[in-house]
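Exam revision sheet. Question 4 asks you to relate a sequence to its structure. Input first:
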Amino acid sequence: MSPLFDVADRLLLFELDHKKIVRCQPVSLASRDPFERAAQIKHLGADVLICGAISNVLERTIGSTGTRIVGFVCGELEAVVQAFLNGRLRESRFQMPGHEV
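Answer key, structure tokens:
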């Protein structure tokens, strides 16, 4: 997990079927511009974006496209993905220090 989504160069796009991962695809993010980044994420068809810290501007911009954002998440990638699939992502161990849900 990148500590700040605003400067991340890539993301992993997971395709799910009944809470099972059927595909995982790395995607390079083409721009750091909030509007271009939001457009790319919308084009990818992402329903949910799980990330570390995210600026208010980028969160609002991506959120306005219909993508739900679960921000300020930290931890090992596999553990974070499993916690999301099992509805446990809001447990304190997955929250960035200093961030309360």
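Marking note for examiners. The domain at 5-94 is CATH 3.30.420.130 (Nucleotidyltransferase; domain 5).
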